[in-house]
Amino acid sequence: MHVNALTDVGLVRKDNEDNYLVSADRGLFVVADGMGGHLGGAVASSMAIKVIDEEIREPHLEENPSRLLHTALLKANSLILQQGQSENLCGMGTTVTAALFQKGSIYIAHIGDSRAYLYRDQALTLLTQDHSLVNELLQKGGITVEEAQYHPQRNILTRALGTQVLPQIDFTTTPALPGDMLLLCTDGLSNHVTDQEIKTVLSEESNLKQKVKHLVNLALERGGNDNITVVLVQYE
């Protein structure tokens, strides 16, 4: 398993509220995009990463991987809610998209609008659905894909970790095949770079580091108005 990751503050924001976790030995990869209050977003995303890292320390092959992820995210949610009671952190929360490679499969836990993509056999598949107001409008046919890309409310989330006692978390599982590439990213990438462009970059004859850098540079060239985080894993 090979992996490369990069986070960039972007060209507009002063602080980076994104965080990520890369642990190839455990097959554990996570991106989190914080939100809310002065420094609240950075605190929330950092807490989520820390808790997931602590809860999934070693491969638990006898346990259900989705259950492991669920337990970790619920614990993170509880701690973020508790910490969010303080005045300067009120209203903070975070997206989380986590992937765990176990038992020949990729287990995904997801809440918010960070994304997981699978690149296999020159095809790109989005494994997650954005929990956002704009995506709800899109699914209901209220707006087009083009309108969604530039919608003024595209950053409004309908779900996030740390915003309610019992968060609704999505789970998906897909087989892991040799040569697969898994891409985790925050919306700082997906709001600027289209799926077709992501597919083109992943198909290039370049190493993972070059692919990740190319994707981040594309987002920066389009304005870089948000933090950008990319984690790219190649399964062997």
UniProtKB/TrEMBL annotation:
Q: Which Pfam families match?
A: PP2C_2 (PF13672)
Recorded hits in InterPro entries, A to Z, give: PP2C, PPM-type-like_dom_sf, PPM-type_phosphatase-like_dom
Gene3D superfamilies hit by this protein: PPM-type phosphatase domain
One GO molecular-function entry:
protein serine/threonine phosphatase activity
Superkingdom assignment: Bacteria
Domain PPM-type phosphatase spans what residues?
2-235
Q: Which PANTHER family match?
A: PROTEIN PHOSPHATASE
Q: Could you tell me what this protein is called?
A: Stp1/IreP family PP2C-type Ser/Thr phosphatase
